[in-house]
Amino acid sequence: MALSPLFEKLTEALRTLPGVGPKGAQRMALHLLERDRVGGERIVSALAEALEHIGYCQRCRNLTEHECCAQCSDPRRDDRLLCIVESPADLLAIEEAGGYRGRYFVLHGHLSPLDGIGPDQIGLEQLEQQIVQGSFSEIVLATNPTVEGEATAHYISELLTPYGVNCSRLAYGMPLGGELEYVDGGTLARAFTGRLPYSSQ
Hints:
It is built from eight helices and seven strands, in the order H-H-H-E-E-H-E-H-E-H-E-H-E-H-E. The chain is of the alpha/beta class.
């Protein structure tokens, strides 16, 4: 039985976070109310500010509060390399691993016809425009090694064939079915170093 309707509302809100079940949400709510109300106010303030001001980079679709994100605004990055990832979490994992200094494009998902997610929903028209306007020598297909991720990489490779750009796929030192954001930095860095040409054939 809940302590109060507002407490129930708070725990339900906390359950929207990934990996948080009923008990975990209850513990968080009790901690904030009993021991750290100031911390709760900081969370509320930071979340409200982030929701109001953070949008998508106009170039790569990464999360940012500016027109262009830090990676796209950095003139020291290699304009000949473009890495395509499924989510901002994957981009962050690659950045933390180090070793890659090219540009990015964030799909915000993967192709999944059964869920109604097609090329338009993951920004492939915008990706094509970037390929036409840019001078990329290599496209790194860093979608996750899942069935949907592999299908997405295959589709993008086929889509980009007419433009004559070289596509490569990460050499994964991880189990099939894993996701980039959960891979340790050393494994991810080695996967980038050992990437191989990708063929949709």
